[in-house]
């Protein structure tokens, strides 16, 4: 029987096994967050400390996301993903031991939550980079939606299991189960045999990989827009997530069961929305989905905060879950489609840094508001702020043609050169164009796009000069760190780069192709 469109990626055995591993990994995250958040309410009455559990869980992603993405791009992704699960299992066992010994304080719990968050910071970029490798481009939106289902199914199952353990055997057993589930995910990941990336060049250096990852995102208009939008949306949604334990205490039946019920209902709403996403994508553009998702999230969050009874809060938080996954999935898809594979983990780590940075900042900010003005005021103020920002941020589109650029690798041939050592540099390339002066304005516009493309592929600097003696003569130059980085740009060349090259060459009117020269810096001279 053929699966529905939303579930078709699960037909692939590789994606299916990785999806279940991701489900297990997410379950450990939610069980840890639920247990830590509820345990914190028993260790302190401070709303700030309760909110800081969310910050401690997400702040590592903001601090370590880009280094983690760089490591995921330059190392074996299978082994790297497996090591993240080993880390989570170890932290869970340590937390369980301290909980059994009644040795946990509020401050120590925050520290352990931060250590667990490091596991999330390590694993998210590498998994985000793996998904496009194991599904087709046409299935990518559905695969990312399934990842959202995994996240939210774990949001239902994880808190439910954690809530049962909290109400029964006790908090320590939640962390024991965390370690067991993380170990199971580790086994599944180790059974997967990833495809080795083909390259004849040595691996990238860590700090160079970090620089190029940041530079790629900075020079990509679509990634800049997505990063800004996800930061602001996570800032908006953070108040309700961080303060949900206190919302649960206010409703009838206050206790671990109510907290679990709210999280499970939110997760169920997200699953429902993920299954409906193919139909919504067929009718609405990405910008429209983000707009309506942000508005619905704000409105439903306000209802949850002000709801006088559980029967009002539950439908509202169901809508919160639907709005959250539809917005987050749309932004994540836009980011994935804007990134070539060679820098995907780094690009997605910047995306995740923006998401978790907004969440951590929002938790601290609105936790402080809650401490001074109350939980309801904090959640409502976050919702109002999100709505007021929408007219400003709508100009940063996450749709458009360039998000669907063909980023599959293409071939760029370099002319033969005399022997140059890999570490020699810097390397400067010059290209001389002769164009019709009447088309100078259009040529400069194309060269502006060329500048961004060269920098995204690792160039240190770029410039365009007009010859004062020869009308219509332009000289382009760009600089690479060394000869190895100059060669590496060939492996980063995509079909979109090839199309842009043809647009440049269409302006050239000389009988011969543009003259291209390469110069290697002489290390004997220092200026």
TrEMBL record:
Its main location: membrane. InterPro entries: MFS_dom, MFS_trans_sf, TM_effector. Pfam families: MFS_3. The keyword Aminoacyl-tRNA synthetase does not apply. It is found in: Cell membrane. One of its GO terms (cellular component) is plasma membrane. GO terms for molecular function: transmembrane transporter activity. It is a multi-pass membrane protein. Residues 14-398 form the Major facilitator superfamily (MFS) profile domain. The keyword Cell membrane applies. The chain crosses the membrane at residues 20-40, 46-67, 79-102, 108-131, 172-192, 226-248, 254-277, 289-311, 317-338, 350-367, 373-393. Keywords: Cell membrane, Membrane, Plasmid, Transmembrane, Transmembrane helix, Transport. PANTHER family: INTEGRAL MEMBRANE EFFLUX PROTEIN-RELATED (PTHR23513), STAPHYLOFERRIN A TRANSPORTER (PTHR23513:SF11). This is Major facilitator superfamily (MFS) profile domain-containing protein. The lineage of its organism: Bacteria, Pseudomonadati, Pseudomonadota, Betaproteobacteria, Burkholderiales.
